[in-house]
Amino acid sequence: MKKISLSAVLLASSALAGAAYAETVLTIESWRNDDLALWQEKIIPAFEAQNPDIKIRFTPSAPAEYNAALNAKLDAGSAGDLITCRPFDTSLGLYEAGHLTDLSDLGGMANFSDVAKSAWQTDDGAATFCVPMASVIHGFIYNKDAFNELGIEVPTTEAEFFAALDKIKEDGTYIPMAMGTNDQWEAATMGYNNIGPNYWKGEEGRLALIEGSQKLTDEAWVAPYRQLAKWGEYMGDGFEAQTYPDSQNLFTLGRAAVYPAGSWEISGFNNLADFEMGAFKPPVQNAGDECYISDHTDIAIGLNAASPNAEAARTFLDWVGSEEFATIYANALPGFFSLSSFDVAMEDPLAQEFVSWRGECGSTIRSTYQILSRGTPNLENETWNASAQVIKGEESPEDAGQRLQDGLASWYTPHQ
Fold first, then answer.
1. Structural domains present in the chain
2. Residue 49 near residue 20 (C-beta atoms within 8 A)
3. Buried (b) or exposed (e) across 355-368, using 16+ Cβ within 10 A?
4. Do 54 and 286 meet the contact criterion of CB atoms below 8 Å apart?
5. CB of 80 closer than 8 Å to CB of 302
6. Taking the chain, what is the end-to-end CA distance rounded to the nearest angstrom?
7. CA–CA separation, 51 vs 345, rounded Å?
8. How far apart are CA 228 and CA 400, in angstroms?
9. Which end of the chain has less neighbouring CB within 10 Å, N or C?
10. Residues 302-358: pLDDT tens digits?
């Protein structure tokens, strides 16, 4: 009897050991701690339903701490199997250091264009090391109630844009535009790189700047600063000390009519604003001009080269490249738009408005992100400062362009 019982126990133990051995657990490193519920409630269950032998753990860090925390884990050999990738140089550095695997041969990569993959490729495009997940689109979110009250039509040209701001300012009920310059980055991200593509013609100008055939002192690059120089009078008293959260609060509390935006605001604004919102793309200079939008490659995911679970990780990454993942992610997190070639149906009306511009305008990415911010002074950070200074009236558009050009030329060979 004892022998039978022992045999049964051994068989049960063996079966349990086999089951445990067959199940692979993949850990994801990310800075998107706001997305924990999304992963736990929607993304992970959808994947595990099709792949019961692979379990996913989403373990995010605080956004500001992510890069340092990830590098420490990679150096210690304790990083997760899957690494959420920021665009361009940060992730390129991880690949060049041997921390990310070349995924060029992954089947799901066929579902992304060269532009979608460019933020996670080597400069020559020979290796792609992260699967693109989403982009964010820039434009303006507005208070529809305010526009209706004041009889303002959605502006499509710069003249209409400033006429609308003038009307809001004259009425006095609302601050015309909710943005401050205290944190600087908004002035460049939702200011300069929002309106700028209409001047430098999107990818045409951005790539010309990289190759050195255009300069930051050219009219196409100085003109956006001339528009920004007009913004200060519409941004309310004390905008110089106004922080990013201050601006968000002013708009969602209904105190401002227009918010220069990134589409990532949609989810948060939906939860906070008790008025109907709309969105309009950056107005063109003249009626009939071709329009361009910043449709910025924002987030992707790659394979830790030291992962002991590479085969299971590739299975998951292949699924990230699928239409199912694109649909789940884009609708669970409106404002983060799929970079895949699938026609993903959006449920959120504000997200629908933003993404519709892809069919109307040329798409580009933020001008400073690829190659041009690798040296010192850092062009991205300098653009933050220049945009804020121009809005405050403390630097002329021409001087800002010259300062940025001199800084870039001091280290970047194509501009010397």
1. 22-134+297-345 (3.40.190.10), 137-295+363-415 (3.40.190.10)
2. no
3. bebeeebbbbbbbb
4. no
5. no
6. 88
7. 25
8. 12
9. N
10. 999 999 999 999 999 999 999 999 999 999 999 999 999 999 999 999 999 999 999
Find tokens 């303002």 and name the residue. Answer: 152
Beta bridge partners of 175: 256
Q: What is the pLDDT of residues 64-117, one digit of tens each?
A: 899 999 999 999 999 999 999 999 999 999 999 999 999 999 999 999 988 899
Instruction: Give the residues across from 279 on adjacent strands.
Output: 141
Alpha helices in 77-196 (DSSP H): 89-96, 114-117, 144-150, 158-171, 185-186, 193-195
Tokens read off for 19: 């089951």
Cα–Cα dist 181/167, whole Å:
23
Tell me if 221 sits within 8 A of 383, measured CB to CB.
Answer: no
Question: C-alpha dihedral over 223, 225, 231, 235, to 10 degrees?
Answer: 160
| Token couple for 242 | 């106004």
- Looking only at the bridges linking them, the beta strands covering 54-60 and 24-30 are parallel
Cβ-Cβ contacts under 8 Å for 131 (sequence gap 6 or more): 103, 106, 108, 109, 112, 120, 300, 301, 302, 317, 320, 321
Cα separation of 207 and 185, whole Å? 22
Q: CA–CA separation, 392 vs 384, rounded Å?
A: 13
Note if the pTM is more than 0.70: yes
Query: Contact at 8 Å (CB) between 135 and 113?
Result: no
Size of the chain, expressed as the number of residues it contains: 416
Instruction: Kindly tell me the burial class for residue 241, based on how many C-beta atoms sit within 10 Å of its own C-beta (0-12, 13-18, 19 or more).
Output: exposed
Q: Is 294 exposed, middle or buried (0-12, 13-18, 19+ CB in 10 A)?
A: buried
- Number of Cβ within a 10 Å radius of residue 315: 17
